[in-house]
Structure formats: C-alpha cells, structure tokens
Amino acid sequence: MDELIFRRTIYAEPNTTDPDIIQAAKDDPAKQAFWVEVKAMDAQLAQAMNIPVPENFADKLILRQGMDEFSQKRQKRPWYIALAASIAMVVGISYMTLFAGNNGLANDVYAHANHEYMKKEIAMSGQHVSQYAINQKMATFNGVLSGEIGEVLSANYCYLGTTKSLHMIIKGKTGFVNLFVVEDNNSKELKEDFSTDVLVGTSFLLQSAKIIIVGDDREQVSRLQKVAQSAFRF
Prior knowledge:
Elements: H1 3-12, H2 19-27, H3 29-48, H4 58-73, H5 79-97, H6 104-112, H7 115-125, H8 131-138, E1 144-145, E2 151-160, E3 163-171, E4 176-183, E5 193-195, E6 200-206, E7 209-215, H9 218-231, E8 232-233
Antiparallel strand pairs: 1-8, 2-3, 3-4, 4-7, 5-6, 6-7
Helix pairs in contact: 1-3, 1-5, 2-3, 3-5, 3-6, 4-5
C-alpha cells in the first residue's frame, strides 16, 4: 500500500479495521510502528477526557468540552483537519497535565492499558506471539525472554510519551495484563507501585531495564511480576 494513503487513513481514523490497512501494517514494521504511535496518541486523548475538572477552572472545562466535540466529529473530518485538531489537543493535554501532577509516564501507561486500545492491538497481531518473535524485539533493549510468562497475545513497540517501549499484552485468568519494557534511564519518575480506581500497576528494575506491569486485577499483576523477574535477562 502507498505510504501516503496509509498515513492519511491512520490520521483520519487511528482505530480503523480496514483489512488493507491491517495487512499493510503486518507486512511493514515501519507502518506498524507508525500506527501504534498514532493509536497511542489517540488513546491518550481519550484518557485525558476522563481527568476530573477542578472547580472554578473555566478554561479547563472549555477545553474538555472541545475535546468531547472533537471525539464526536472526528470521523466526519478530512484527514488533514483531524491531524490539525490532534495537534491542538496534544497542546491542551500538556496544559492539563500541569494541573494533574507529575504522573506523565503513569498516565501514558494507563492509556495503553485501555480495553479498547488493547482489543485493537490484539486484532492487529492476529495470532499468539511466539517467544522467538518477542526476543527479536527484545534485542532493541539488549534483553532476552528466557522463560514462559504466559500466553502473549500482542507484542509491539509503542511510545510512552517520548519513551520507546515494548508493550506486551498477556492473557490472564480473568482478563488481560500489560507488560512494558523500557530503558531504566527513561523511567525514573515512575513509582514502584501506582494505581487508579480501576488499574493497578507496579514497576521494577532488572539490570539496565525497567519492567512495568499494569492490569485491573492486583493478584494477576503480582503473579506476572514474580514470573517476569526470573524470565527476563538484560
């Protein structure tokens, strides 16, 4: 597929289910990485719309209303208008983050753990991911997966803000668990334990890399943490 057509389609609708787009992404790692990055930005927009608006903060309320309208009208707009709107929203989100605390990396992790985002990632992978395929991508982080961590449904590069990571979606007993591999020097701000009303997260250092695990079940997150501590080598 032509690069320009691919990018126009992704900009206009990051969560497209067009078979031609899915196949093009499978055939070209660069296209797949681009798609994942745009979907991550789209997921961050959705996550930002759920941030509580402080009282007596009219400007922030107006921004949120604008984001709601953007979400409703996005599919009706040409791709170049959607791109311009996305850039404007990113600027707005950066402004909102100043009032939400220094949780930038955690918020990016939450956005990738969104159920709709995970379903799209799993659908794009199309099949269970082998340990060999995982280790091909782990080489970017000078690491190796030497043991079983469960049934991996998706393993793709993604960006947590500006930090490149390897995002794996693993099937748990009662749902999905997310595991991210990032370089340690890019994750200093992330606490060892973090959570929202819905999600539970933990992070730990393994030699030169940080492993981040997040899911909606604390027991599953703890179980995967124990397995990952012995399964990964850096």
